[in-house]
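Entry 14. Two folds queued back to back today. First construct below, sequence then structure tokens.
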Amino acid sequence: MIKNLFLGLILTLIIILISFGYLGLKYFPKDALRTLLLLDRKNLFYALLSLFSFHTFDTLRVIVLARALKVKYPLWYGYLVSLVNTFGSTVTPAHLGGELLPLYTLSRRGGHFYQILTIVTMKGFSGFFFYLLFLPLTLNALLRDSRQTKEFLLVVGALLLFSLTLFLLYKLLFKKDALFQKNFLNKLRRTAFRYFITCKIFFRTKKKEFILALLLSFGLYFSFLFVGIFLVRAFNPSGDILEIFLDQLPLLYAIFISPTPGGSGVGEFGALPIFSPYLPEDTIGLFVILWRTLSQYLSAFLGGLIFLILVIIDYKKRHAEQSH
């Protein structure tokens, strides 16, 4: 796992450097410092508060699901889990690390494996409901402006196709045997069946907790979207909150389905046509860099440091036990 996370981290950093470099060269203001100093501080503070709310809702969701299964985690540890999850999601394709790392972080504080697996499963399942229920609004947002939609779909589609092509080439060149030996459909069937049974049992016996987890998931995604809303208003205080909220939905879906680690590249380039109607062209590059840093990369950086510290602590503890 550590090796895959390290490789994912290197790939993510390369994509971030390329995308941020492009934005800096083409869409950066001449006087970036003056632009930053002129930002509306109140909305900038609200953007930071939305980021804190994102991790708060994520923390409370884990705690609610855990306590429904008779597993207790302190509030402060929940924030660590949330930050480490963000790191895992950012450095793995299709955000897979956001589901794998909780198995490690939560197991450190007790609980059986099946309990932790159920917590992670229900966490992901509750988040899926947001994407399901907001799909009609997302489609409506895409239909509002045909020019903006065409530009957005062209950028995202090209990046998705490019990243998938690179992934398949990597598999064919370096993991050819593994690619053809895996029975993908059978694996998908078994996984879907296991998730269905787990969710069915949990929903039947823990209805109140499940509904509360759904509400917390909605709060989590709303908080993420409000980071973008308040940051836009820091640049442009007259930006309409509802319009910015709706326009971000297709970008949220694009980042979610992106095969690149954490949606890197897709998030940066996909943001250009989404946010450009609200911002001058010479500030859009600075905005996107700030938005991606604040909404994801800052938390991922902190989560990576926490994960490294936890691994070192556990390694030293295991080594001390073996010595005795």
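Second construct, same run, same settings:
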Amino acid sequence: MERERDHYRCLVDVALEVIGAKWKPLIIHHLCRKPHRFRELERKVPFITRKMLIQHLRELERHGVVSREIRPARPVQVEYAITEYGQTLYPVLQALSDWGKLHLEKG
């Protein structure tokens, strides 16, 4: 475990490894509101490619931020939801949103 920790420069670096991709904050934002199926997330996050959405969801799931539930149906439905741990990111995203508003008003 110590070896893994050695490659981080600071704690912000740790956080950015989990949420620091272009689309991850938007995915987390939508999942904080309610669970979504894959196609719903595709529509909610404009311009993201299917490959990138899959990759980001897998990474967020690996970090324990997002859960994936397969629902028995025809066709099979997969639903993504924010985990309890992932909910701890809500204040972070709210702060980013507030700063974005401030930045728009500034300019």
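Quick look at the second one. The first helix runs from residue 2 to 6. Residues 79 and 99 are 31 Å apart (CA to CA).
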